[in-house]
Amino acid sequence: MIDGRAAAARLRARLRDLVMEFGPTQDLAPGLAVVQVGDNPASSVYVRGKARATVEVGMKSMEHKLPEDVSESALLALIRRLNDDPAVHGFLVQLPLPARIRPQAVVDAIDPAKDVDGFHPLNVGRLVSGGEGLVPCTPQGCLMLIRDSLDRLAGQEAVVLGRSNIVGKPMAALLLREDCTVTTIHTKSRDLAQHCRRADILVVAAGRAGLVRGDWIKPGAVVIDVGMNRGVDADGKPLLLGDVDFDEAMDVAGAITPVPGGVGPMTIACLLRNTMIAYCRQRGLPAPEI
Ligand code: GUN
Questions:
Q1: Number of structural domains the chain divides into
Q2: Do residue 197 and residue 233 come from a single domain?
Q3: Residue 163 near residue 226 (C-beta atoms within 8 A)
Q4: Residue 26 has what pLDDT?
Q5: What is the CA(251)–ligand 1 centre distance, in A?
Q6: The whole model's pTM is what?
Q7: Are residues 141 and 231 in the same domain?
Q8: Domain assignment of residue 275, yes or no
């Protein structure tokens, strides 16, 4: 079982050390701002978790809560302010946004150098075509967990189930950059199970509880479950469920992430990692090995 909480704690400890190292020579601590529109309960949970982790590693956390009925132009004006604020080294606008607001207009307005989500078209382009960008946090976290479990990624068969802009597409691009043989499949693909059975590395981000069964998994494969589905247990208590049937997969996989406690904690740690990378680039500091 891959312990995502422990891996995330190690990454945060490393980031905290770096913040401390810079402390005496830098007048500004790394600053991360999070913008939330309205109060979607799931978003509020994420935003609180991000703020807590940011402070814990010694970075400065800034929160901007805008009302549910804020106009797109007011949100874009805040983004321009954050782009120009030298104390903000990275920021993100929590998704989803109210239907009135065009998410692409919002993402396009963010300074790519401060785009710690890695969603701006320039960062997407750099991920695909090479060069120094910022990489989306969840796929980056998945890659770090895969590297911990596998000595060599080059030549491995990697299957990514899911094609979202946040996880599936950047995950496939990252694995290709690692010289894996990458197949992306999704809900409209034929023979999902057959594709999965070929995978040495299987990343599942389909958004369907228990979709991947034990007999879809190649013996010894590394299985990364990005699913976060809300369910209830036998007593009706709320429960977080992955996209992989964990009990079945556990007997077949070589390494597997649980839900919760797998990918989730790595996403926030990688957001702080991106903030550190953005900070160093903006201040002309040497790129840290993290
Ligand atoms: N909502 C769910 N996941 C994410 C994410 O990675 N970034 C942002 N900004 N919003 C999200």
A1: 2
A2: yes
A3: no
A4: 84
A5: 32
A6: 0.97
A7: yes
A8: no
> What type of residue is 209?
A
Q: Which atom of ligand 1 is nearest to the CA of 271?
A: 6
Instruction: Answer whether residue 54 is part of any domain.
Output: yes
Nearest CA residue ID for atom 8, ligand 1: 94
Full domain range(s) for residue 167: 137-264
The number of the ligand 1 atom at minimal distance from the alpha carbon of 117 is 7
* Cα–Cα distance measured from residue 140 to residue 179, given in angstroms and rounded to the nearest whole number: 15
Q: pLDDT value at position 177?
A: 97
**Catalytically active residues, by annotation:** 50, 94, 117
Structure confidence at residue 25 (pLDDT): 83
**Residue 177 belongs to a domain with what CATH number?**
3.40.50.720
Which one of 46, 110, 137, 263 would you pick to mutate in the ligand 1 pocket, going by the greatest count of ligand atoms within 8 A of its CB? 46
CA pair distance 256, 270, nearest whole angstrom: 19
Hey, which of 44, 166, 226, 275 would you mutate to test ligand 1's pocket, going by the most ligand atoms within 8 Å of its Cβ? 166
| Rounded average pLDDT per 10-residue block, the chain, 290 residues | 98 97 89 97 94 97 98 98 98 97 98 98 97 96 98 98 98 98 97 98 98 98 97 93 98 98 97 98 92
Q: Which residue has the tokens 């910022």?
A: 134
- How far apart are the C-alpha atoms of 96 and 142, rounded to whole Å? 22
